[in-house]
Design a protein that fits this description.
Blueprint lengths: L2 H22 L29 H5 L14 H19 L3 H24 L4 H18 L4 H26 L6 H14 L4 H19 L13 H14 L3
Helix pairs in contact: 1-3, 1-4, 3-4, 4-5, 4-9, 5-6, 5-7, 6-7, 7-9, 8-9
């Protein structure tokens, strides 16, 4: 079995786990030890109820036990995980880079989704993502490790400093600590050259999504999730920017 086929087969199952992360991490619920259960009645799900995408179709989108509608988030995340894996397969012609690219994409997907729902970028995802970026760089391009490590430090320092300055001037937070850690993770994966583009593109995508797509009016107290824009920008540079 080729790495591409394997990634496409595994992707929906990864998406199923990402759905659990998206729902449970913001609530502080256990991810590893709790059995999967219906969000409405709490019944433990059977193995046949947890086949990604297919179970939702077979059950017609409803719990087998109580008949309540299954939250569409589950199949949406499974489908999105498959889509980004397919994107990586089509775009990245280096089989050795495929699994790291998929792992990056799946983690960014979870972070973006959580930030959209809860304005939160959990350390349990951002910090391992940064370490993974440095590990992948050390394995694939050891000569670039110093650049990528410096990029991670610079990215975190720049956004953390900006957030502290904004808080001091305005008296309230303008950037969350998770944004700095996500950008640091991006630096660890991509290197210093990518940082200006990632920041500008991430900010632009955030504004476009907020004003044009969602039709919101902004003021100085508006809370915007910066994570999804950063996540998309990091992913695009990984695939097309030579990072």
């Amino acid at each position: 079995m080729t790495p591409a086929i394997a990634a496409l087969i595994v992707a929906p199952f990864i998406g199923s786990f990402l759905g659990v992360l998206i729902l449970r991490l913001p609530e502080g619920d256990s991810v590893t030890w709790s059995r999967s259960r219906c969000d409405s009645c709490g019944h433990t799900l059977r193995a046949l109820d947890m086949i990604p995408l297919l179970s939702w179709l077979w059950l017609r989108g409803r719990c087998r036990d109580c008949g309540a509608a299954i939250a569409p988030l589950h199949w949406q995340v499974e489908l999105a995980a498959l889509a980004v894996a397919a994107w990586a397969v089509v775009t990245d012609d280096d089989p050795a880079a495929l699994w790291p690219s998929c792992a990056l994409a799946w983690t960014l997907l979870a972070l973006a989704w959580i930030d959209l729902r809860d304005l939160l970028l959990p350390d349990v995802l951002t910090l391992p993502l940064m370490v993974a970026g440095l590990a992948v760089t050390a394995w694939d391009r050891p000569d670039a490790l110093a650049d990528h490590a410096a990029a991670a430090a610079l990215a975190w320092g720049a956004l953390a400093g900006l957030a502290a300055a904004y808080r001091r001037l305005r008296g309230h937070d303008g950037l969350g600590g998770g944004d700095a850690k996500l950008l640091a993770a991006g630096g660890a994966w991509l290197g210093i050259a990518a940082l200006p583009w990632v920041v500008v593109a991430g900010a632009g995508l955030t504004l476009i999504a907020t004003v044009v797509v969602r039709g919101r009016t902004l003021d100085r107290m508006s809370a915007l999730p910066f994570g999804p824009g950063l996540a998309v920008a990091i992913w695009l540079w990984r695939l097309y920017g030579g990072g």
